[in-house]
């Protein structure tokens, strides 16, 4: 099995940090997104599934070489975290809008 060189580890860490910063900015900007977040959530789920399938295929067919599998795994984590955040935000928004009419009928 091939070990990762120092440069490859550094590149992977830099790529992970870039994805983490992008995910943070996207997740923090979700409340400001105009329109329906459900469509955004569905797109991120599709990309998560595509990245997961590619990761599994790459790990199955390229035994012993983890380089590309690591990058694909990071992309799975990136898209999955955005999908989960969009799902939680969408569910919270729907629960909030469903609770508002009940409060107005009590007054």
UniProtKB/TrEMBL annotation:
<feature type="transmembrane region" description="Helical">
    <location>
        <begin position="44"/>
        <end position="61"/>
    </location>
</feature>
<keyword id="KW-1133">Transmembrane helix</keyword>
<keyword id="KW-0812">Transmembrane</keyword>
<feature type="transmembrane region" description="Helical">
    <location>
        <begin position="6"/>
        <end position="24"/>
    </location>
</feature>
<protein>
    <submittedName>
        <fullName>Uncharacterized protein</fullName>
    </submittedName>
</protein>
<keyword id="KW-0472">Membrane</keyword>
<feature type="transmembrane region" description="Helical">
    <location>
        <begin position="67"/>
        <end position="86"/>
    </location>
</feature>
């Amino acid at each position: 099995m091939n070990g990762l060189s120092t440069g490859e580890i550094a590149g992977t860490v830099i790529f992970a940090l870039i994805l983490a910063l992008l995910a943070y900015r996207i997740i923090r900007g979700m409340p400001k997104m105009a329109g329906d977040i459900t469509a955004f959530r569905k797109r991120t789920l599709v990309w998560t599934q595509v990245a997961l399938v590619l990761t599994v295929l790459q790990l199955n067919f390229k035994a012993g070489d983890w380089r590309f599998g690591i990058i694909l795994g990071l992309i799975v984590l990136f898209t999955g975290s955005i999908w989960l955040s969009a799902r939680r935000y969408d569910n919270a928004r729907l629960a909030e809008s469903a609770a508002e009419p009940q409060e107005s009928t009590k007054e």
